[in-house]
Amino acid sequence: MQTVVGYYDWQSGEKSVSDKEFFVHCSGRYRLIHKESFKTERPNGANNYQLLYIADGKARFRLEGKMHILEKGNCVLYRPQEEQYYYYFLKDNPDIYWVHFSCKEENEFLAKTGFLEGKIYYVGTDNSYVRIFDNMISELQLKQPFFEEQLQFLIQELFIKMGRNQIRENTVFESYNKEVEEAIRLFHLAPESDFTIKEFTKERGLNYYRFIDTFAHYVGVSPRQYIINIRMTIAKDLLMNSMFQISEVARLTGYENPLYFSRLFKKTWGVSPTNYRKESNPLLLIEHESNRKGFKS
User: Fold this and answer.
1) What is the Cα–Cα distance from 104 to 52, expressed in whole angstroms?
2) Where does the record place the HTH araC/xylS-type domain (predicted)?
3) All residues at 6 or more sequence positions from 208 whose CB lies less than 8 Å from its CB, including other chains
4) Secondary structure element (H or E) that encloses residue 129, with its range
5) In the sheet where 66-71 sits, what is the strand order?
6) 280 phi and psi, to 5 degrees?
7) For 238, what's the count of Cα atoms within 13 Å in the CB-facing half-sphere?
8) pTM for this predicted structure
9) Domain 178-296 is of which CATH architecture?
10) Which residues are CB-contacts of 129 (< 8 A; sequence separation ≥ 6)?
11) Which CATH superfamily is domain 2-171 in?
């Protein structure tokens, strides 16, 4: 059996408790390599919370008198004093990560991320889970400066990622595909570029109209409008800098035609770029005029 563990201190374990918002007592990883089986039976449970994540293979849990065979991508959350019966068998190739932690009862954060109801949660397989568990184990082993604070951030990051993936696994969100996410990343990476949705969908073998509908359904606006919104938000910031003329702001946000840019800006914000600059900071106009005259002389 391969065991990797980290403890806050050598007394930390299932009996440890803390009154902090989030506190990690210990974390580890179990893999059966030669041992035929491994079992944990705690009729009185633990004094703290325990989360077990099946990174690979299968594990067996007896919950409320019923045996569950859970495959990779599932996790189980035990609350304080809940009985714990779980079993690993070599034939199932289990690879299990776990963490014991304390948090306040009826924790708002756990509720928001969907971990206050039920015991079994399908969160999918995600390499980031393993990274976070490995980092928690390392922090507990090395105990570098501010490791307690880092552990709090890590376990909250774990629940955020698991909660987010739970939502995506729901049937309502099954169409929220990676193509939409990739498009959003590209829009923010270079919003001024000449980005065409038709080329994007063609390169990925997607139906153009279906992608447009999917994007609008989950984001709330069309891809074209999303790009305009990003550009107009950037334009507001650029207009606050007196070094840029309106035509330069237009070009920096992807528009060669300043008049077209101005129409879009006014349609978005209800005010022209010139008036926005004047209303936001009248001194910028004075400074801009002074710089322009000084440059000419």
Assistant:
1) 19
2) 181-279
3) 197, 198, 201, 202
4) helix 127-142
5) 37-42, 84-89, 58-63, 66-71
6) -75, -40
7) 19
8) 0.67
9) Orthogonal Bundle (1.10)
10) 53, 55, 97, 123, 158, 161, 162
11) Regulatory protein AraC (2.60.120.280)
Residue that the structure tokens 């060669």 belong to: 256
Q: Which pLDDT score, from 0 to 100, does residue 175 have?
A: 47
Between CA 190 and CA 176 the distance in angstroms is 22
Q: What is the mean pLDDT of each run of 10 residues along the chain (297 residues)?
A: 84 87 94 88 95 96 95 96 95 96 85 87 91 96 96 96 81 59 87 85 87 85 92 92 90 93 94 89 53 42
- Domain locations in the chain as residue ranges: 2-171, 178-296
In angstroms, the CA 164 to CA 114 distance is: 9
| pLDDT score at 172 | 45
3-state helix, strand, coil in the chain (%, to 5): 45, 20, 30
Q: What is the DSSP letter of 173?
A: G
CB atoms within 10 A of CB 13: 16
By CB neighbour count within 10 A (0-12 exposed, 13-18 middle, 19+ buried), where does 259 fall?
Answer: exposed
